[in-house]
Every structure is written in structure tokens, then in C-alpha cells.
Amino acid sequence: MDREQGRATGAGPAVSGATAGPAAIPIEIGILTSGKPTLAMALSSLLLQNTPDIRIHIVDTAERPVIHHEDFSSAMRLAFDRGISCTYEHRRERQRSFSAGKLALLEALTGPHICFMDDDVVLPSGSLTLLSVFVATHPDYGYLAPALKNPGTRRTALGGRTQFAPGTLFRQDPVVRRILLEYYATTDDVLDRQRQGDVVWEVAFLTEMFPLLGRPCYTQPDNVIYHLDYHEGPNWELLREDLLATSRAKARALVQKYAGAIAEVPIEIAGPQH
Known about the structure:
By secondary structure, this protein is of the alpha/beta class. The protein has helices spanning 39-47, 70-82, 97-108, 127-136, 174-186, 202-212, 241-259; strands at residues 3-8, 27-33, 54-60, 85-91, 113-118, 121-122, 143-149, 169-171, 188-189, 199-200, 217-227. Helix 1 (39-47) links the parallel strand 2 (27-33) and strand 3 (54-60). Helix 3 (97-108) packs antiparallel against helix 5 (174-186).
């Protein structure tokens, strides 16, 4: 594995983003990129957040490392000027670039409040503050999802239920960490090139996992973030009911293995929306 590293240091009830509470909590953010031209814009939107206590780690699986792109280098300089820790690594993983990349992110992000961000999503300057202030008063939360404008996956086997989307903040305790480390190390995602055995879909797995752990999950409909890939076509594989069933079964198996019990949650039977 070839790695290049760099550093710049310096589904539940809808809730209001205007919730008052204690000071914002620290957030660790992971970005997996394959070199999309929107990466620098997405990173800059994070670096210009009103929340001062954030740390960012980027895993790059592009053939040509993005660290050599001028716009990305400028964004890394911005991280230095803003006093924000922003670390980077390049991995030459081709067969399981999505799953192995997410595993690398998780290995680097060890704190209790984690956010996986896509390289084509941007946030208004107060988005992370709205998330962090809310979860500071709800310490038992599982995940808190902002509203994603222009989602790339409008039609999926999850139907209209609330989904774990890019920009979602989740609580990582030892049980969640062990589950996710095994999940990303041992599965092939629908976005991976390699397809051996049962294929899973990360969004479905995470959407199921937290309720199975008995963790309340929330959405913030007034906290809107934006997906910039306006020309992304539908991924018809995400309509497969067998993909949802396999992802759901994997979530149940890993929750049972590491938590020792599965919470009683209603199973939503939701087909694709038309």
C-alpha cells in the first residue's frame, strides 16, 4: 500500500437547529475522496464553520493524489490559517476503495462525536454548531442528521424513511467503534469494485444499526446542507430489496455480537418511492 500523508494544524424525531444549550462539543470529521473537483470547496466550507473545535482527516483514493492539486493545497493552507487540524493520507486501494477508505477514516477518528462527510457536500457556516449544540444536551443520541438538499439517491430500497446521510453526526462509544471497525474491514460495499460474497450498502447498515442499539436518532430539517453533484444519475442498485436485507442482517449480527442484545424497534417495510 502506497500512502502519502500531509498535515495542516493550527431516524427519529425532527428537532430544531435553534435548540439552546451548552457550548458546542468537539467534532471529528472524515472525508473520503476519489478526487472529485468539488473537494476543495467542500473542505473550505468545513474550515469556515463557526464551530472552532473540529478536526478533519481526509483519505484520498484517487489515482493522482489530490494533494498535488492547487485548489486543495490552498484549502490546506486555509486550515493552517484557521488553526484547524486537517490531516491527509493517500491510499492506492482499488478493489475495496470505499470500504478500505472508510476503515482508514475510522482508524484515524477516535473521538466520541464523528461526522463522515462526502467530497461534494457543502455546509453553511453554522451547520456544525447546530448539530453540536443539540447533541450536547442529548448525550444518549445515536445519530443526528441535517437535511441534505439535492440528495444523489432519491429512490432507494429504504423508501421515504429517514436515512443516515452525508453530514450526519454520530456517537462513537467502544461498542459502536468495534462494530464499525469489523464492518468496514470485512464487507464489500455496493460502491466497491470488488464484489465477493454478500454485498452491503453502508447507508442502510448505519440507518439500521443505531436503532438496533437502542440509540435515539434525530433529524434537523431546518439545518440544510447541499449536495453539489447536480448531474449525478440514479444508482439503480440501491433499489434492490436483497441489498437492504443483507445490510439489515449484517447490522443485526454485529449488534448482537458486540452489544449482546438487540433493541426492540419497529421494522419499516418501505419500498422504492415513485
